[in-house]
């Protein structure tokens, strides 16, 4: 019995840890009757990109954070666009390697209601500004340490990227760096846009 009790407490502790670290999907549900984009993404595309597709339809928790110039951005500002929300840091080598393809991806899809938004998790703003001077980034870079970020976004490492559809519903999550100019990435984004591409008047800038 003592062994069973220890096993129970250990399992329960692991569950709490995983939930706290964000491995459980956010529990903010979308309205009833919504059509989930996750049902339209072929398994082969998700697997090729290593996309963890969320089975349930959940509204992405809003976040607000300033850019290095002090201008505050809200995730909800980009409602109407497919959002690629990327968490990274300047000290993260895989993050730095991913940025060139992510920046080129942002420029490639800029006219198709696809927006890349990144959140730098550095402790010092100076590290981010110095990095951006050396490696210009065309998409918004926000300062996570100075903003209000829901802890459910944080997984077990960075880079961590979320795909959020034009209605603000979480599609899925990618852990680790990706080649955003790869044929698989192009096919995945194309498949999502084919179903959920918003009309121009819905884009909020």
UniProtKB/TrEMBL annotation:
Keyword Electron transport attributed: no
Provide the protein's localization. Cell envelope
Q: Domain Thioredoxin: where?
A: 54-194
PROSITE patterns in the record: PROKAR_LIPOPROTEIN (PS51257), THIOREDOXIN_1 (PS00194), THIOREDOXIN_2 (PS51352)
Among the Pfam families in the record, one is: AhpC-TSA
Q: What does the record give under GO molecular function?
A: antioxidant activity; oxidoreductase activity
Q: Which UniProt keywords apply?
A: Cytochrome c-type biogenesis, Disulfide bond, Redox-active center
One of its GO biological process terms is:
cytochrome complex assembly
**What's the protein here called?**
Putative thioredoxin family protein
Give the species. Answer: Leptospirillum ferrooxidans (strain C2-3)
